């Protein structure tokens, strides 16, 4: 098993601090240039549009961690209120809450519905912002870790990502098919850099500067049939950080909980989620988790085309360390 010395050697090798200036807060998204977007747009040939977003609701994938729950969705105004709350509600409620609504609803046909959602920003299909994981008191590009306060992330928050910057060439690497698994990559063997190369070669695609790499481990497809969000599958071995660095990838996403392999035995002795530490803090490379790759994978297997225009701008939640996204692949 690797130790912290091995980890530090890799960290020194992949660190991008200062590469795009001392003030940079978006890291490897700098690889996505206007030329790159134009190249990606040319991949739209048959007009197929595929959502890679999961549903946000009570049947979401949370279950692995006690500190994360599935989204709670509640109605704050319901057109039915016109017939119930406004007419029959107690006086205190009419005074406190319903006065606006009764004014809207009285003697006219206008009705409306409002709602709200309470959820961890990490609950379902999402991007990890660069401020999500750090070590030794520093975020990406050397920003102090204590710049993330109870008021939010002053540095490297998700709002620092220009929504347009998450549009590029996407490449699906279908590890499930390459391993000959029927549904998903079971825990045990992490996905290595050599395997990523093998999958790309088998699919006839290359990975280049500014690409967003999307890895199908089959976890989401499995989750859809079992409903068990706590089930563990295989993910990327932590040394894939070097592979992503060498290929100058803009971002990486997967259909599983963490992108990387969660089994500590495949990690670095004395720490947890070493690939997160390297990607988010050292490289400035964002991680997308819980992406629904079921339909995209089926389409790619059917036409043999594994590259596409991908647009996946996170919600610009000010100071947040992650955000939901509904990524769209276009072919
Ligand atoms: C952690 O669980 C810390 O990270 P993530 O949500 O990115 O897997």
What would a concise description of this structure say?
InterPro entries: KFase/CYL, KFase_sf. This is Cyclase. The protein has 331 residues and is an alpha+beta fold.
Description of the structure:
Pfam families: Cyclase. This is Cyclase. One of its GO terms (molecular function) is arylformamidase activity. This protein has 331 residues and is an alpha+beta fold. Helix content is 27%, strand content 16%. It is globular. The protein folds into two domains: 4-66 and 119-330, 3-Layer(bba) Sandwich (Glucose Oxidase, domain 1); 72-118, no CATH class. It has helices spanning 4-14, 34-41, 85-88, 91-96, 98-105, 175-179, 193-203, 219-226, 240-246, 274-283, 294-303, and strands at 49-51, 72-77, 114-118, 126-128, 148-149, 152-153, 167-174, 212-216, 251-254, 286-289, 307-311, 322-324, 328-330. It has a nine-stranded mixed β-sheet, sandwiched between helices. Strands 2-3 form a two-stranded antiparallel ribbon. The model has no long low-confidence stretch (mean pLDDT 93). The chain has eleven helices and 13 strands. Helix 1 packs parallel to helix 10 (274-283). The structure holds acetylphosphate.
């Amino acid at each position: 098993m690797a130790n912290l010395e091995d980890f530090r050697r890799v960290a020194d090798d992949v660190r991008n601090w200062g590469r795009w200036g001392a003030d940079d807060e978006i890291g490897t998204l700098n690889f996505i240039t206007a030329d790159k977007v134009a190249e990606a747009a040319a991949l739209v040939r048959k007009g197929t549009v595929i959502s890679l977003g999961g549903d946000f609701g009570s049947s979401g994938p949370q279950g692995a961690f006690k500190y994360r729950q599935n989204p709670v969705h509640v109605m704050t105004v319901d057109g039915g209120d016109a017939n119930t709350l406004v007419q029959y509600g107690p006086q205190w409620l009419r005074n406190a809450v319903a006065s606006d609504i009764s004014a809207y609803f009285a003697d006219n046909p206008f009705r409306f519905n409002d709602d709200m959602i309470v959820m961890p920003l990490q609950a379902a299909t999402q991007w990890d912002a660069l401020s999500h994981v750090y070590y030794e008191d520093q975020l990406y590009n050397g920003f102090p870790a204590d710049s993330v306060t109870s008021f939010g992330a002053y540095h490297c928050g998700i709002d620092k990502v220009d929504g347009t910057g998450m549009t590029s060439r996407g490449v699906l690497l279908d590890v499930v098919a390459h391993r000959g698994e029927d549904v998903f990559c079971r825990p045990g063997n992490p996905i290595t850099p050599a395997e990523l190369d093998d999958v790309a070669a088998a699919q006839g695609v290359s990975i280049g500067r500014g690409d967003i790499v999307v890895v199908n481990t089959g976890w989401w497809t499995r989750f859809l049939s079992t409903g068990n969000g706590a089930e563990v599958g295989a993910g990327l071995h932590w040394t894939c950080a070097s592979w992503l660095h060498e290929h100058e990838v803009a971002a990486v996403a997967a259909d599983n909980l963490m992108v990387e392999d969660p089994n500590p035995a495949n990690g670095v002795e004395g720490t947890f989620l070493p690939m997160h530490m390297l990607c988010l803090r050292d490289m400035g490379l964002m991680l997308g988790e819980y992406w629904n790759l079921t339909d995209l994978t089926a389409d790619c297997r059917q036409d043999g085309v594994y590259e596409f225009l991908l647009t996946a701008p996170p919600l610009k939640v000010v100071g947040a360390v992650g955000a939901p996204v509904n990524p769209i692949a276009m072919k």
